[in-house]
Amino acid sequence: MVEQKRENNEVRYNEEFLQMLLMEQEIDAFREHFLALHPYDQAKFYEKVGPDIRQTIYLYLSPEEMALIFEVIDLEDDEYEQFLSEMDPAYGAEMLSHMYTDDAVDVLNELDNEQRESFLEMMDSETAEEINELLGYAQYTAGAIMTTEYVTILENSTVRSAMAVLRKEAPNAETIYYIFVVNDQRQLVGVMSLRDLIIADEDILIHDIMSERVVSVKVGDDQEDVAQIMRDYNFLAIPVIDDNNELQGIITVDDIIDVIDEEASDDYSKLAGISDADDFDAGPFKAAMTRLPWLIILLFLGMFTANLMGQFEATLEKVALLAVFIPLISGTSGNSGTQALAVAVRGIATGEVNEQSKLKLLMKECLTGLFTGLACGVTVVAIIFLWKHQITIGLLVGAAICCSILVATIAGSFIPLLMDKLGIDPAVASGPFITTLNDVTSILIYLGLATTFINQIM
Amino acid sequence: MVEQKRENNEVRYNEEFLQMLLMEQEIDAFREHFLALHPYDQAKFYEKVGPDIRQTIYLYLSPEEMALIFEVIDLEDDEYEQFLSEMDPAYGAEMLSHMYTDDAVDVLNELDNEQRESFLEMMDSETAEEINELLGYAQYTAGAIMTTEYVTILENSTVRSAMAVLRKEAPNAETIYYIFVVNDQRQLVGVMSLRDLIIADEDILIHDIMSERVVSVKVGDDQEDVAQIMRDYNFLAIPVIDDNNELQGIITVDDIIDVIDEEASDDYSKLAGISDADDFDAGPFKAAMTRLPWLIILLFLGMFTANLMGQFEATLEKVALLAVFIPLISGTSGNSGTQALAVAVRGIATGEVNEQSKLKLLMKECLTGLFTGLACGVTVVAIIFLWKHQITIGLLVGAAICCSILVATIAGSFIPLLMDKLGIDPAVASGPFITTLNDVTSILIYLGLATTFINQIM
């Protein structure tokens, strides 16, 4: 019965009970209760218990049963190595060979070369070869996330024989809901959904009912582009082909959700200047170590700013009031730079910004910077006049804010575009970096203007 | 044949050719070529052409064919209203009634009350009632994104009769890959995948092979929580039940991808202080208007900072050199505050931070702030001593940076936690806001220290 509901983070299984069964060596009772759980819940339990309890789990579960857990488990990078080293190597190798190839590749990618090789040697040669091929694809490409367990049907089969193939392949294929149709040369020529197959007449030829307009990706395509296509077309799986149009693998929607999540979290982290290792679970020392590199780099940039400002010490000495508006000006220009940066990074990530539209984006941001700069400038002049009854200082601060926003907005869109051009991930031009850069320029603009018009201000 | 590949943003269809067929009123040729396209490509074409060509499309396509386009189209909010108002109202109503209910609800939600009512009145009463029910669920809940087109099977059916139901329902159901098993009271009692069904013996009872451990969500559950569960368990669909355990609808994976995308983009936008309307397509004036509210609010906060600094004008007059380090201190504390903010917002979003672990996060961030503060403080003292040969100013700036980072890190995690507690989306405590807040505190700390130790500095 459906008694167990998920209320927030409440677990769906009885952890103490399972632990007790393991400790009292109740193998049958443990297997009965544990194997009734969804693999995700099995994984949560496995992940949570200590190493000695895990040793008992390895004894009680077959490598095949363990493989289901490792297909869904979401570990820190170094934990894969740790957990695998706990297992008997032969057990680990057999588990890996029972996993879907794409998931096995994910795990093997976390190991060092030597360990990876030793596992591959222990596997049966066919599986090892398939995995080796996938390991050869560059990270973040379609080839690296595809699986080789899928169902293909020859175009001249009947619906009846296709259903028979499907029934046979169902237990091993990662998805049977799309059937990929190939010709004698294994070239992809069509696609069918299981939905269409089960409502079709049994004697009809696949070739006559398949869809010939297959949307496919190449092994070398970027995983983000693949995610975009699958999202746009609402696909549950997409075929991956090589340059010769031969079917090499498929990518299923669950892997794409992981890609979307990863990329989004990555962009977010970079905007904030943090690393993905800096999550809730990290201890304070580890968190500090991941944050410090950015902070120290920015500290040096800040010292550089301070040094530049030192050139204007004479001006600041004459009119100390000038210093009061520095945080206002650098803050506002930093904010508008971050806004422009975020729009550009997002545009590049979604593919809306391409070679032809780069100039258009820059032109647009120039105008946007001008509008926002003027609006903020006028506001500041008004506030300073109404509040402090200072018109000269007000005009100076207003002019500085207007120019700084303009420059910051252009820089905020130009820098990610330039990085994209140079083949660097534009998200690396993170928020803190743009902000610090804009600190420098805005202060130069402000104190430069102040020094020029020092006689009017005093 | 699979000749048409996607190279970056290259389209998969011949736009000019389709336009020509429309203009020359070649209805049969247009229908043949257009309907062979994937609905997503149909939508891209439909979206791109002008209003008079769209009028011809309405003439050439049935409301049912148009419904497929509207199920996948991704328009700006106000475009739904515009496109629907172009159609004959009866045509529009029929199109809406042919759409999956969840997609129809998405479209109707973009219209004003009056328009919505008039469309609902023109639909057949059964569909209108189903849609009305979905419209009643609060935004961002499972109820609001679920669909009512799914396949249910009674638990005492045989596999054979279940397959017959499936074949009958396949054309209308949003997914047939999961079959939800109910008892006589429509209560959810089990689930089966089509994969399990097609390999099962035809005479067996569903009750004997279904999985009784159904993972389900409640109609009122937050869509982000639903997304998290579907991601964890790799589900293609999840059933939605009411408090009485009665099945009310299902949520499919394509809707969940949209949720994940939206939420991620939302958090990203808020960290940068931009709105989702501020995308690549927006004109410079529109972009400026969406960015200005934040900039102006922060400008007022900045003026407040300036005013506070004014209190220290006497100190700044005595030692103008002090002003030189203001951007360094406020910048560094702003950066560390944003880092802490991003970790907290992400932790809350993924559900890792809950009531029990809030205090743990705060304690951790106190220590992290202390470590990073000390490290940056010592670095600054060293730099200023080595570079400027100033020890007193160095110690002052170092102490100010150390304290500011500590305060900023704590504030960066405390504020989103507090907002979450108050029921406000923590991502609203955006990067610019935290940065400006930390400007104020860091400058108060710095100039406060400077004023206290003014005699040592001079």
Automatic annotation (TrEMBL), chains A, B:
Membrane topology note: Multi-pass membrane protein
Q: Where is the CBS domain?
A: 146-209, 210-268
Coiled-coil segments on the chain, per record: none
What stretches pass through the bilayer?
A: 292-309, 366-387, 393-415
Q: How does it assemble?
A: Homodimer.
The entry's family comment says: Belongs to the SLC41A transporter family.
Taking the first listed entry, what is the main subcellular location of this protein, grouped into a coarse class?
membrane
**Keywords per UniProt:** CBS domain, Cell membrane, Magnesium, Membrane, Metal-binding, Transmembrane, Transmembrane helix, Transport
Native source species: Metasolibacillus meyeri
> What InterPro entries does UniProt report for this protein, alphabetically?
CBS_dom, CBS_dom_sf, Mg_transptr_MgtE_intracell_dom, MgtE_N_sf, MgtE_transporter, SLC41_membr_dom, SLC41_membr_dom_sf
Q: What does this protein do?
A: Acts as a magnesium transporter.
Question: Pfam families attached here?
Answer: CBS, MgtE, MgtE_N
List where in the cell it is found. Answer: Cell membrane; Membrane
What protein is this chain from?
Magnesium transporter MgtE
